[in-house]
From TrEMBL:
This is MOSC domain-containing protein. It comes from Streptomyces gilvifuscus. SUPFAM superfamilies: PK beta-barrel domain-like. Signal peptide: none annotated. Residues 19-169 form the MOSC domain.
């Protein structure tokens, strides 16, 4: 099991694109981040609720790798932890390279199962004009690359703080690459 660390934690009880940084967040099994607008058993993302409010919430926790901020800074965009709506900002983990079903052990108790990629929306350009093209682009093979983080569900709850270790456990058997959830 390899891993990295938690760089920042963020949550917001109201719908807004950015989430303020916190001293800690509490993950609740089967729900998500305590007090966060996206916590729940069923979908909370507005466009998904409009389509089918009974869908399971595969987006209980949003994680972004801190290294992305350095990459977009090189293109002229200043972005800090929480500003892209993530709950957990990690350091030292290739989140985008994880397969579906990977387990992230955050701090002493919390466990998040990776469900897929975040599908970044136009709100990113409302936050910083032109930023969407930095987090969604095409690879050398022409395939679309989504780089705005990953989503997961909480298997085991617990408190998560900046500086906590993040352990990664890969699933058994063939690995399925992440797709948008």
């Amino acid at each position: 099991m390899s891993g990295g660390s938690v760089a920042a934690v963020s949550s917001n009880e109201t719908y807004s694109f950015t989430k303020p940084n916190r001293e800690s967040i509490t993950l609740l099994a089967g729900l998500g981040v305590e007090g966060d607008v996206h916590a729940g058993v069923t979908v909370k993302h507005r466009s998904r609720v409009a389509r089918d409010p009974s869908q399971p919430n595969l987006r209980q926790v949003h994680l972004i790798h801190e290294e992305l901020f350095g990459e977009v800074r090189e293109a002229g965009f200043e972005v800090a932890a929480g500003q892209l709506g993530e709950n957990v900002t990690t350091r030292g983990i290739d989140l985008l390279g994880l397969p579906v079903g990977a387990l992230l052990r955050l701090g002493d108790e919390a466990v998040v199962e990776v469900t897929g990629l975040r599908n970044p929306c136009l709100q990113i350009d409302n936050f910083r004009s032109g930023l969407l093209k930095q987090v969604v682009g095409r690879g050398a093979d022409g395939a679309v690359r989504h780089r705005a983080g990953i989503m997961g569900v909480v298997l085991a709850g617990g408190v998560v703080r900046p500086g906590d270790p993040v352990g990664v456990e890969l699933p058994e058997g063939p690995h399925r690459p992440l797709e948008i959830v």
